[in-house]
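Annex B. Sample input.
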Amino acid sequence: MPYLVELLLFLAPFAAYGVWRRMNPTTEPSTILLVLAGTGVVLMLAGAFWYGSSRSMAPGEAYVPAHLEGDRVEPGHAEPRR
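Annex B, continued. Sample output.
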């Protein structure tokens, strides 16, 4: 069931555009709308690249998963390979 909801959420913008095109067959999207959509795509890609590069580990580091030390949880972290 959750996969169906995710699929519907993914397809909703395409369906909305299809309905808009069906109701307004001679109308084209305005230039400002296309510029804003393009700007949004560029910002999304730049944000994804920035997030990926800022959260990555340096070469030669290994990830140590979270573990219990006594009665407290030690969070996961990166440390140099041995």
